[in-house]
Amino acid sequence: MNASQATIGHLGAHLAEQGRELRRLEGGGGRLLTLFSLLLVAQGLLTAFNATLLFRPAGPLGWIALALCLLAFFTLACGWGHALLSFRPPEQAPAPPLEAELDALLHGDDPASLERLQTEYRQLGRKLDQAIALKRRFFNHACDELAISAWLLALFGLLLVFGL
C-alpha cells in the first residue's frame, strides 16, 4: 500500500465518521420534531381549556398570562421549524464512489486515478462538513428554543394555577 492508498483509506474513515454524525443529527432532529409536536398539542389543549380566562384578561396577571401563552406558542413554532430543518436531507446528498470503481482505482497503478479519487473524497468531505454544520446549527437553535419554551410554559402554567 502506497501513501496515496493510505491517504484514501484515511479519507474513507473520515467520511464514515461524518456519515455517522449526519445520521445522529438527523435522528436527534426527528426526536426534537416529535417533542415539539407534542408540546404544541399540549399547549393548544391548555389554552383551549382556559380560553375564557385567557382571552378576556381582567387584570395585569391576565395580560401577562396571555403574553406568556403567545410567546410560548411562538417559540414552540420556531423550535418546531428549526427541528424540521435539522431533520431534512441536504439539497444534493453527496454519494461516495461506487465500490467497484473504488476497488479498481485502489488496486490500479495509475497515479492520476488515485489523485482523482483523493480529490473526489476531499470534495465529498467538504460537502458533508457543510451539511453537518447546517444541521447542527438548526439543531442547536431548536434546543435553545426548547429551553426558552420550557421556561415560558412553566411561567404560564404557574400563572394559570396560582394567578388567575
Please describe the structure with a list of short key phrases separated by commas or semicolons.
single chain, 164 residues, mainly alpha, 5 helices, 86% helix
Order of helices and strands: HHHHH
Taking all Cα atoms into account, the compactness measure Rg is: 25 Å
Rounded mean pLDDT score: 83
Strand content: under 5%
Spatial gap, N to C terminus: 75 Å
Characterize the largest beta sheet: strand count, sense, and whether it forms a barrel. Answer: none
Q: Tell me roughly what share of residues is in helical segments.
A: over 70%
Uncertain residue segments = none
Which structural class fits the helix and strand makeup? Answer: mainly alpha
Number of helices: 5
Overall form: rod-shaped
Number of strands: 0
Write the layout of secondary structure elements.
Elements: H1 3-49, H2 51-54, H3 60-87, H4 99-107, H5 111-163
Helix pairs in contact: 1-3, 1-5, 3-5
Description:
- By secondary structure, the protein is an all-alpha fold.
- Helix content is 86%, strand content 0%.
- The chain contains 5 helices and no strands.
- It has helices at residues 3-49, 51-54, 60-87, 99-107, 111-163.
- Helix 3 packs antiparallel against helix 5 (111-163).
- The radius of gyration is 25 Å and the shape is rod-shaped.
- It starts with a helix and ends with a helix.
- 19% of the residues are buried.
